[in-house]
Amino acid sequence: MEQLNSETVFDSPFVDVAQKRFRREDGSEVDRQVVEHPGAVGILAYDDEVVHLVSQPREAVGVDRLLEIPAGTLDVEGESDLECAQRELSEEVGLAAAHWERLHTIYPSPGYLSETLTIFAATGLAEKPGETDETEDIEVVRLPLADLDEAIAAIADAKTLVALFLLRDRLRGKRG
Amino acid sequence: MEQLNSETVFDSPFVDVAQKRFRREDGSEVDRQVVEHPGAVGILAYDDEVVHLVSQPREAVGVDRLLEIPAGTLDVEGESDLECAQRELSEEVGLAAAHWERLHTIYPSPGYLSETLTIFAATGLAEKPGETDETEDIEVVRLPLADLDEAIAAIADAKTLVALFLLRDRLRGKRG
Lengths: 176, 176
Known about the structure:
Strand order of the largest sheet of chain A: 7-4-9-8
Number of helices of chain A: 3
Helix content of chain A: 10-25%
Strand content of chain A: 35-45%
Shape of chain A: globular
Radius of gyration of chain A: 18 Å
Largest sheet of chain A: 4 strands, mixed
Mean pLDDT of chain A: 94
Order of helices and strands of chain A: EEEEEEEHEEEHH
Low-confidence stretches of chain A: none
Number of strands of chain A: 10
Oligomer: homodimer
């Protein structure tokens, strides 16, 4: 498809909305309102015992403590997605990883949201405390790998569900 | 948490943005900009041979044809989420289902988006053509269950990935 034009109809430090016109492959033209997002990363950080998750208030969905993989928005100019993932892992969980691997890129809500989110696997973990954001209220949760199936049944965050399903496949592959 | 106030700062037929203030459980107050969405449903419709998917242009993420489970927004007043799922299955795939089951509710992007999406399993399928929306360009794709692992590796839509992982678990449970 080809984007014919785009006009920002709402602009804020957090979220933009654009009115766009596209020409599809079949030649037809469509108008779409798109919530513009710079993209994000999520980090599946695990060792032989646990996967490192975070729990935080998520006002947008009215949840006091939502369990998620560490994650962040690509909002620092010049920073790559891998660098963003490394910074977030340090800031949110206090860890560095020797090995990084791109696992999967997902579209959280492709009907109207431009966000793409790349899930990285981070292994070979060592302590590395990073700067913490005092406006955030993040608790680290170390989920035992033995409790993965229970966690999958209870988790509601889409990126975290996908990450834990992928982790389960990796662990089964190792065992098998 | 408690919502103290909310002001709509952007309003359109498709997307609203609200500026909100919340009091957290610890007593602190935070301001959040929230993209407001009425919620959605996704339908995991399958029989012994195939799972019924749809392929459509998704301009928001710049993809000519994205493979997804049938889905829809809760934008018809007075319609329940189950009724919405039944209507979408008929409109997008031309099917009715004898058995409906709530599988999982996910938050696609809980940092700033209020959307919650419930995935239903739909089985006992029979033909039931519904009204089609001529502005939509939807193709039905019948994915053989034997190709599920390949599909999971290739799919980018978050709700569809979660649904296919859940389907794989159900099929394994049946076999085991």
